[in-house]
Amino acid sequence: MSIRTGSNRTLNPMAMQALDKFKLEAATELNINNEYKSGYWGNITSRECGSVGGQMVKKMIESYENQLANGTPTNTSMKAIKNENKNYNLANKAGNFVPQG
């Protein structure tokens, strides 16, 4: 048994229930042992848990790709657009460079 360090936190606490529902949907799609429905995953094999996690990632990537294909701006693309509009003068930020030697 491991000691929890608390480093694996959800960024948005309100998303915890949605992630749990998503995990149950992924387990159902993969026909994983029904013992997970009680909320306790301790009797599920590592292989099955890994399959559920992999299925979740696959669905998230698929959703993101669909957003990109449909032209729906995502948070990352919006940040890129905002950064393109800024006029950066890196020479002023870096200071004067004087070569040695």
Name some characteristics of this structure.
single chain, 101 residues, mainly alpha
In short:
54% of the residues lie in helices and 0% in strands.
Topology:
Blueprint: H1 16-29, H2 46-70, H3 75-85, H4 90-94
Helix pairs in contact: 1-2
Provide structural commentary:
With about 100 residues, the protein is mainly alpha-helical. Helices cover about 55% and strands about 0% of the residues. Helix 1 (about 15-30) packs across helix 2.
The pLDDT mean sits at 77
DSSP helical segment count: 4
Strand residues, percent = under 5%
> What ranges have pLDDT less than 50 throughout 5 or more consecutive residues?
none
Helix percentage range = 40-55%
Order of helices and strands: HHHH
Q: How many strands appear in the DSSP assignment?
A: 0
Q: How would the global form be characterised?
A: extended
* Separation, N- and C-terminal Cα atoms: 59 Å
Largest sheet: none
Briefly note the structural class of the backbone: mainly alpha
Give the C-alpha Rg: 22 Å
